[in-house]
Design brief:
The chain is of the alpha/beta class. It has helices at 22-35, 71-81, 93-99, 101-110, 155-160, 175-187, 209-215, 225-232, 266-269, 276-280, and strands at residues 43-47, 62-65, 86-92, 115-120, 166-171, 192-197, 216-218, 238-245. It has one domain: Thiamin diphosphate (ThDP)-binding fold, Pyr/PP domains (Rossmann fold, 3-Layer(aba) Sandwich). An 8-stranded mixed sheet has the order 2-1-3-4-6-5-8-7, with helices on both faces. It is globular. The protein starts with 21 loop residues before the first helix and ends with a helix. The chain binds thiamine diphosphate (TPP) and magnesium ion.
Length: 283
């Protein structure tokens, strides 16, 4: 039977602000699952702490909400246990670039076959709008009324510096394009990183739809990392679309010699082992 959007809807009312970009990001995610004909039992989404993480209640499927900054290692664990599952790590710009930035770096370097979906609303929203490394430098924020004292990180530039196999950028007010990006990201065999420029009407009202409309532009896919870097660093335009993809580098499990001939998943191989004789050998 064909999968329907209703299969992914829940009856729990979440607490996102009216106009929050998370609504359309989730709509696009559900739509992508439907168009890929994936049932809720075939997917795993690991959630972070933050407004993005409160989406755990808004969608059906295998879900796990962990500590702040840790949705990526949870996703890696789920993928390694059962690589037949479609695994998505859902995370905010704060969790991904601050508390959990090490995990982002190693997931890309290892090329695990997971999708990392970064909700970039340019602030720590759940804790009432502190500056993150994607907040514009001159922007007044809670605790930094004169603008932040630190420098910034461009997510695309960081990802592209790590020889990734997939980087795309979407915009929360364009769920149709985001659905397409998510489908391609989930079908990519390797670590797909998707940054979503997310509207945050409460703590980032200056970057509203009118502000984005003047800047958002569609990028064609780039064939080299250096062209892709120039695209994500553009200071006038915010380019969206699949910006870089390399299909030639094998993903982690297909590059791991001792798993190549296995027909089973690690989760099938877990069993109870009697360690009494092993322990007695230490006496
Ligand atoms: C280790 C740790 N550090 C800090 C916090 C406090 N905290 C909870 S939510 C949050 C903000 C999350 O920001 P982001 O990841 O960008 O998600 P958003 O709320 O913007 O969607 C912070 C700092 C925490 N729960 N755990
Ligand atoms: Mg955020």
């Amino acid at each position: 039977m064909a999968v329907k959007i209703e299969d992914y809807n829940t009856n729990i009312k979440n607490t996102w602000c009216p106009g929050c970009g998370n609504f359309s990001i989730h709509m696009a995610l559900k739509q992508a699952f439907v168009e890929l004909n994936l049932t809720p039992s075939e997917i795993v989404i690991t959630f972070d702490i933050g407004c993005n993480g409160n989406g755990v209640d808004d969608i059906e499927g295998n879900r796990f909400k962990g500590l702040h900054g840790r949705s990526v290692p949870l996703a890696i664990g789920a993928h390694l246990a059962n690589s037949k599952m479609k695994v998505i790590a859902d995370i905010g710009d704060g969790g991904c670039l601050h508390e959990g930035v090490d995990h982002l770096i190693h997931a890309i370097r290892s090329n695990y076959d997971i999708t990392i979906l970064i909700h970039n609303n340019q602030n720590f929203a759940l804790t009432t709008g502190q500056a993150t490394s994607t907040t514009k430098e001159e922007k007044p924020m809670y605790a930094f009324p004169d603008g932040k004292a630190e420098g910034s990180i461009n997510i695309g530039e960081l990802v592209l510096s790590l020889n990734p196999t997939f980087f795309a950028r979407g915009y929360s007010n364009d769920p149709k394009q985001l659905t397409e990006i998510l489908k391609q990201g989930m079908n990519h065999k390797g670590c797909s990183v998707i940054e979503v420029m997310q509207i945050c009407p409460t703590y980032n009202p200056q970057s509203n739809h009118d502000w984005f409309k003047e800047r958002i532009a569609q990028s064609a896919i780039k064939s080299t990392i250096s062209e892709a870097v120039a695209t994500v660093k553009d200071t006038e335009k915010i380019y969206t679309g699949i910006i870089y993809q390399n299909r030639n580098r094998p993903d982690f499990l297909n590059n791991l010699e001792n798993r190549k001939s296995k027909k089973t998943e690690l989760v099938d191989e877990v069993k109870q082992v009697d360690i009494k004789s092993l322990l007695s050998s230490f006496k």
